[in-house]
From TrEMBL:
Belongs to the class-V pyridoxal-phosphate-dependent aminotransferase family. Csd subfamily. It comes from Tabrizicola soli. Catalyzes the removal of elemental sulfur and selenium atoms from L-cysteine, L-cystine, L-selenocysteine, and L-selenocystine to produce L-alanine. This is Cysteine desulfurase. Its EC number is 2.8.1.7. One of its GO terms (molecular function) is cysteine desulfurase activity. Keywords: Pyridoxal phosphate, Transferase. Residues 24-394 form the Aminotransferase class V domain. PANTHER family: CYSTEINE DESULFURASE, CYSTEINE DESULFURASE 1, CHLOROPLASTIC. It comes from the Bacteria. InterPro entries: Aminotrans_V_dom (IPR000192), Aminotrans_V_PyrdxlP_BS (IPR020578), Cys_dSase_SufS (IPR010970), Cysteine_dSase (IPR016454), PyrdxlP-dep_Trfase (IPR015424), PyrdxlP-dep_Trfase_major (IPR015421), PyrdxlP-dep_Trfase_small (IPR015422). Pfam families: Aminotran_5 (PF00266). It catalyses: (sulfur carrier)-H + L-cysteine = (sulfur carrier)-SH + L-alanine.
Length: 406
């Protein structure tokens, strides 16, 4: 049973008020709130258990190392990876994709080689490839979405040419909520011998993920969206691709031996993890993933589907609201603009006065904004603790905003 009242009680911030109103937190697409178990783990990690990892023989160092490294196994279970050695710790998806750009793509891509992207990628899955375009003459090939915001897997596969060296695609749009059939893309790309990187920042929060079933080569996640601490995350990298990668950062832990004249690298995943890491952050991420798996990702997905359906019905009843993207199987993410003079920032300010937290702007997806023909939108993104009553509060506040700008 999905006990929503009990789940909400696990998140202390949900009991507070904002501007004299109960907080309605609908900015989960940007960053999710943290359950008490994660807050406790982080507090305990600093107050009672802190020490550097991998480098000490004393009790605290061994304890911190054990808890830190256990998160690698937790992430492997969460993603159904074949081995925890395929899990590389990062500060989040942005670092994970940059790792692939610097450590795998940069050494092997030549001028004229191509990377295939969809138009709805987050900047984190665009800018690292622009670096290669600027510095190495790599060509970025863009695949459009249709009028509902859906991305046809075959269109991505058809965009793969003889010079294509990588497909980099999101599994769920952070703006439209569109869920992409990345497994179909991976099957088609593999037939053409092209690796696939999947941005799992949004999708991994809302649905079960199985990297082996997807068949990708890289899968990046970020902790702060997964109800864990900011500065935590990981990227799953297949052993085949790990063997092709050079180190990204140099320093402690990623080496086996250093002399005045030579250096030899540690084995993956340590080869790609230099310096003192975010110890407590990653421990907190492990606790957050245990919490999610305890609830059951399928249960979370079912709850959010019911929220999506209810919110879609209520928002469609506002004939002066323009909702971007209407994919049938989308996640519980709604980006919208209002007819008339109301700017997205104005709308979000009015909602904030009612205690409602939404996002306003380009959502780090400017190419998609251009494709949609808008400069900004408001975004209400739902999470595992949101309720249908909060949907009603959102709709009521939007009606107020419309009256003010009518």
């Amino acid at each position: 049973m999905y006990d929503l009242a009990k789940i909400r009680a696990d998140f202390p911030i949900l009991s507070r008020q904002v501007n004299g109103k109960p907080l309605v937190y609908l900015d989960n697409g940007a960053s999710a709130q943290k359950p008490q178990v994660v807050i406790d783990a982080v507090t305990r990690g600093y107050a009672e258990e802190y020490a550097n990892v991998h480098r000490g023989l004393h009790y605290l160092s061994n304890l911190a190392t054990e808890k830190y490294e256990s998160t690698r196994g937790t992430i492997a279970r969460f993603l159904n990876a074949a081995s925890e050695e395929e899990i590389v710790f990062t500060t989040g998806t942005t670092e994970g994709i940059n790792l692939v750009s610097y450590a795998w793509a940069a050494p092997r891509l030549q001028p004229g080689d191509e990377i295939v992207l969809s138009v709805m990628e987050h900047h984190a899955n665009i800018v690292p490839w622009h670096f290669l375009r600027e510095r190495q003459g790599v060509v970025l090939k863009w695949v459009e979405v249709d009028g509902n915001g859906d991305l046809d897997p075959q269109a991505v596969i058809d965009a793969i040419g003889p010079r294509t060296k990588l497909v980099a695609v999101t599994q769920m749009s952070n703006v439209l909520g569109t869920v992409v059939d990345v497994a179909a893309i991976c099957r088609g790309a593999r037939e053409k011998g092209v690796p696939v990187l999947v941005d799992g920042s949004q999708s991994s929060v809302h649905m079960p993920v199985d990297v082996q079933a997807i068949g990708c080569d890289f899968y990046a996640i970020t902790g702060h969206k997964l109800y864990g601490p900011s500065g935590s995350g990981a990227i799953w990298i297949s052993r085949e691709r790990q063997a092709e990668m050079r180190p990204f950062l140099g320093g402690g832990d990623m080496i086996r031996e250093v002399t005045r004249d030579t250096v030899t690298w540690n084995d993956p995943p340590m080869k790609f993890e230099a310096g003192t890491p975010g110890i407590v952050q990653q421990i907190g991420l492990g606790v957050a993933l245990d919490y999610l798996m305890g609830l059951g990702m399928a249960n979370i997905a079912a709850h959010e589907r019911s929220l999506r359906d209810y919110a879609r019905d209520r928002l469609q009843g506002l004939n002066w609201l323009n909702v971007q993207g209407n994919s049938a199987g989308k996640g519980a993410i709604f980006s919208f603009t209002m007819q008339g003079a109301a700017h997205a920032h104005d709308i979000s300010t009015i909602l904030d006065k009612r205690g409602i937290a939404v996002r306003a702007g380009t959502h780090c997806a400017m190419p998609l904004m251009t494709h949609l023909g808008i400069t900004a939108s408001c975004r209400a993104s739902f999470g595992l603790y949101n309720t249908v009553e909060e949907v009603d509060v959102l709709v009521s506040a939007l009606e107020l905003a419309h009256e003010l700008f009518a």
